[in-house]
């Protein structure tokens, strides 16, 4: 069997025998996945990674003898391998998971709090197979390890709004983009696929590290310059109007394009208020959420930018939008901030058709 058709070989690392058996059963039910082994702690896992050379490792955050984050750092340093974190739905679990994604984990899945269902099984299988296709060690090519916030610069773009959608790989990609924007940037609305508790921790982490204010969006909250609004994991985020002002609108309606929050929902709401929008941006992620909404943005006359394949951890969502003709221009991640500011300041209008993809 050649490499292209071979099943994804997975090693499961978890201190719970019940969880190891559950993950083994769920992953093995997919013919495209082979569980080659399991380990109760990182010390055993270290030897099994060397012996089995798995394509993907699933890794629990909290374990004896060595915590998951410390072990992840060793994996990324000594033997870079795609890792999917298996996290608890707690505040501590959310914060540890976000740190894991910064260290180099490809993705994460939250441990189910109740009965296992087909949705969890399908999500687990999809994330593992997608992780196997990522280029670990080449994440965000060209991005500096540490970024200094961009100083504020005078602009006449405070009437503009930026809408951004992201999924797998978006935690780090969004940080790169926001660190490249000044503290007085146009307001930014973001939909990042993530469970509820995780979006709160994500917003708090970005608020500590980025030059502008970052928070979870609140229903009917007035949208202001120098502020980033993150869709809560339990609600769709839309751009709305109240009393002549732009506001965040939250909805707990059914999933759209398989997600709540959905990028399509955010982009479609922005398309209806196109005169106020500077730019729509779609970043790394698997699937196609955002592609149709971005096409509506472009048809409404909004500038639309997509992350290019080389700098995307998963070139799924950007590819789907690009292939639909929804993306006017693709940029590498490290150039996306400048591209956004160029459009907001008006200098991106004439350049968008003449510049090659960065």
UniProtKB/TrEMBL annotation:
Family annotation (NCBIfam families): PRK00742.1, PRK12555.1
Main function: Involved in chemotaxis. Part of a chemotaxis signal transduction system that modulates chemotaxis in response to various stimuli. Catalyzes the demethylation of specific methylglutamate residues introduced into the chemoreceptors (methyl-accepting chemotaxis proteins or MCP) by CheR. Also mediates the irreversible deamidation of specific glutamine residues to glutamic acid.
A Pfam family reported for this protein in Swiss-Prot or TrEMBL: Response_reg
PANTHER family: PROTEIN-GLUTAMATE METHYLESTERASE/PROTEIN-GLUTAMINE GLUTAMINASE, PROTEIN-GLUTAMATE METHYLESTERASE_PROTEIN-GLUTAMINE GLUTAMINASE
Enzyme class per UniProt: hydrolase
All copies of domain CheB-type methylesterase, residue ranges: 155-347
Cellular component aspect of the GO annotation: cytoplasm
HAMAP family documented for this protein: CheB_chemtxs
Keyword Repeat: no
CDD domains given in the database record: CheB_Rec, REC_CheB-like
This protein's encoding gene: cheB
InterPro entries found in the cross-reference section: CheB-like, CheB_C, CheY-like_superfamily, Sig_transdc_resp-reg_Me-estase, Sig_transdc_resp-reg_receiver
Protein family according to the UniProt entry: Belongs to the CheB family.
GO BP, sorted A to Z: chemotaxis
Catalysed reaction equations from the record: L-glutaminyl-[protein] + H2O = L-glutamyl-[protein] + NH4(+); [protein]-L-glutamate 5-O-methyl ester + H2O = L-glutamyl-[protein] + methanol + H(+)
Highest taxon of the lineage: Bacteria
Gene3D superfamilies found in the cross-reference section: 3.40.50.2300, Methylesterase CheB, C-terminal domain (3.40.50.180)
Name the UniProt record assigns to this protein: Protein-glutamate methylesterase/protein-glutamine glutaminase
Annotated segments matching region Disordered: 135-157
Post-translational modification: Phosphorylated by CheA. Phosphorylation of the N-terminal regulatory domain activates the methylesterase activity.
Domain Response regulatory: 9-126
Modification 4-aspartylphosphate occurs at: 60
A GO molecular function held by the record: phosphorelay response regulator activity
